[in-house]
């Protein structure tokens, strides 16, 4: 391992959070981004080829050392580490809405979910998964929420764009527009048909 | 999230909150009913679904949950709207189900994303970060930075977010009923009767006229004075009520 | 690296404390102590010979992986561990209210912000930016908060009076009481203050 790779490994190990390349450059004054990337590549190679128990991965716009997933069961069973607690369905729904609609206010979240969501929003804020990113227009200038880098981190995502895009989902994520007048002329889609039983 | 509707035979002593957990809100319940019966979201037999929805809400003891009741009301309203006759060639007619369909599709999208997120989080949850927190508990936490601009910015945010803005501005008070009342009373101290115009005071404004009229009406209501008008559009006499002695 | 060494590396990395050999044995049911010790030797050798940025070391409580001490200076200088934190928007707002309204209780802060603020208050207290300065009148004699000298230090101010726009904002941050009863005192001046949109 070359000296820069050593230093990167030590820093990534010490930080225990994803470190962006810019921050890693600070480790060695004047080192270029390309050199840091080359060193990251070397470290990745050492872990993979050396069949280490850890791996190097890019998450939340930074680099992080993590344990290999195939070892998780053994480590959890030995009660050395607790698996992260699962979020409730309500929390996941709220996160999903905020991830795609951010910045988004409470009213819109509740409109989509169909249930009051202030408790869930507070919980997600306390857990550091969402944060207030500004205030909206209109009455009382409602708080607007967005996802945090911790959100990306727990999902192992690099950037928000790594979320599945509209066309990758079975149900398109573009806002649904129901144009009933147009469908009247077509008369084909079920929404116009008289399927209502008494 | 429940794939099936919990059976009505579930123990009666089961807590309300536990039962509520069976569904993640009214849209979840509605979507479950629709999926269970393989119904197209865009073609919901509202009457049938509304009845089923109400039955489940009742069975699960969700009657007190406002969100569910609101949806139940909405479904019944749509059911009634669909039963109403409508002109055959009414181009403005909108399917009363449209809004509900839009919301259900939107919610279905959210659920699909949730499925992806759950899977992703489970996969990533198997990759543990370093557990050792380098800073010992007694070490100073990371330093905090902020500056005056940020502090004042936060003040602006607080002010902008307050429901009742609080800048105080002194403005001319348009009406002064109390002043007019005092003026009428003092005028009536010396005389038993006077004309309404006299009550307005000198150099009166529109505001003075309105204030005086309000004061006169209030005093008359309280029985302190009585009003008389001899002819239509004629002068109005304001007289001290005989039982009321001037202060 | 043999499979047991891999597993040990992952477990030692993920554990939040040094692990004794007995605990490491739990990772692989039925594995003998000698095998664990052999694997630890292998891991130590890999780190040393491979010139890694970390090392394996035994302390009284067990085995742990640490960054190499000779790299500590570079990591400290890059401030990778001690990165200054920005306050959240909620924290900034709360701090602003306390700065201009002190001494002020939780109820008033919450009335102005329109959201529950106990968590934020506790955090600001933990970070030494606010402190309890007394107790208010009324039910339960609520705690009153004020800013600390650390608060002034961070802003580079000598005294609280150096805060800009002191008088103006102190008034502005007072919650409005909607008083519907008419003010009848000396109304003849035809002047009264009226809350207007600011």
Task: List the SSEs and their pairings.
The complex is a heterotrimer, with 2 copies of chain A (198 residues) and 1 copy of chain B (247 residues).
Chain A: H1 3-15, H2 21-25, H3 33-49, E1 54-59, E2 62-67, H4 72-77, H5 89-101, E3 104-105, H6 106-113, H7 118-126, E4 130-135, E5 143-147, H8 149-155, H9 180-186
Antiparallel strand pairs in A: 1-2, 3-5, 4-5
Helix pairs in contact in A: 1-3, 5-7
Chain B: H1 16-20, H2 26-36, H3 46-59, H4 66-83, H5 98-125, E1 144-145, H6 148-161, E2 167-172, H7 177-190, E3 193-195, H8 196-199, H9 206-221, E4 225-229, E5 236-240
Helix pairs in contact in B: 2-5, 3-4, 7-9
Structural write-up:
The complex is a heterotrimer, with two copies of chain A (198 residues) and one copy of chain B (247 residues). Helices cover 43% and strands 13% of the residues of chain A. Chain A is built from nine helices and five strands; from the N terminus they run H-H-H-E-E-H-H-E-H-H-E-E-H-H. In chain A, the strands form two sheets. Chain A has a three-stranded antiparallel sheet with strand order 3-5-4. In chain A, strand 4 (130-135) and strand 5 (143-147) form a beta hairpin. Mean pLDDT of chain A is 81; it is low at 172-198. Chain B has 247 residues and is mostly helical. Chain B is built from nine helices and five strands. Chain B has helices at 16-20, 26-36, 46-59, 66-83, 98-125, 148-161, 177-190, 196-199, 206-221; strands at 144-145, 167-172, 193-195, 225-229, 236-240. In chain B, strand 4 (225-229) and strand 5 form a beta hairpin. The radius of gyration of chain B is 36 Å and the shape is elongated. Chain B starts with 15 loop residues before the first helix and ends in a 7-residue tail after the last strand.
């Amino acid at each position: 391992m070359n000296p820069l790779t050593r230093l990167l490994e030590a820093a990534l190990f010490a930080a225990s959070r994803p470190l962006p390349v810019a921050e890693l450059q600070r480790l060695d004054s004047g080192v270029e981004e390309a050199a840091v990337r080359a060193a990251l590549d070397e470290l990745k190679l050492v872990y993979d080829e050396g069949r280490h128990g850890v791996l190097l991965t890019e998450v939340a716009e930074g680099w992080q050392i993590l344990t290999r997933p195939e070892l998780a069961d053994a480590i959890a069973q030995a009660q050395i580490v607790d698996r992260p607690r699962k979020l409730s369905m309500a929390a996941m729904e709220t996160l999903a809405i905020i991830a795609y609609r951010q910045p988004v206010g409470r009213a819109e979240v509740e409109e989509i979910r169909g249930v009051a969501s202030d408790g869930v929003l507070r919980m997600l804020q306390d857990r550091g998964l969402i944060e207030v990113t500004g205030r909206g227009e209109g009455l009382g200038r409602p708080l607007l929420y967005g996802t945090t880098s911790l959100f990306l981190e727990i999902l192992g995502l690099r950037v928000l764009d790594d979320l599945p895009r509209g066309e990758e989902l079975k149900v398109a994520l573009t806002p649904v527009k129901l144009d009933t007048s147009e469908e009247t002329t077509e008369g084909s889609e079920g929404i116009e048909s008289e399927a209502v039983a008494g | 999230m429940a794939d099936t509707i919990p059976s009505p035979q579930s123990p009666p002593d089961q807590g309300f909150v536990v039962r509520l957990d069976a569904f993640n809100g009214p849209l979840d319940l509605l979507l479950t009913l629709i999926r269970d019966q393989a119904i197209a979201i865009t073609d919901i037999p509202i009457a049938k679904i509304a009845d089923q929805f109400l039955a489940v809400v009742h069975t699960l003891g969700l009657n007190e949950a406002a969100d569910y009741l609101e949806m139940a009301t909405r479904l019944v309203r749509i059911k009634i709207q669909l039963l109403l006759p409508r002109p055959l060639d009414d181009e403005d007619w909108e399917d009363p189900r449209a809004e509900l369909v839009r919301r259900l599709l939107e919610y279905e999208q959210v659920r699909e994303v949730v499925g992806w997120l759950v899977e992703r989080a489970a996969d990533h949850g198997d990759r543990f970060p370093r557990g050792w927190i380098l800073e010992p508990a007694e070490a100073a936490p990371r330093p905090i930075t902020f500056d005056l601009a940020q502090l004042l910015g936060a003040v602006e945010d607080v002010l902008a977010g307050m429901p009742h803005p609080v800048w105080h501005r002194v403005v001319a008070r348009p009406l002064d009923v109390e002043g007019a009342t005092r003026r009428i009373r003092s005028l009536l101290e010396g005389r038993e009767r006077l004309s309404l115009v006299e009550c307005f005071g000198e150099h009166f404004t529109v505001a003075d006229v309105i204030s005086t009229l309000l004061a006169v009406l209030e005093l008359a209501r309280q029985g302190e004075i009585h009003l008389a008008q001899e002819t239509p559009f004629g002068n109005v006499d304001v007289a001290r009520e005989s039982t009321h002695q001037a202060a």
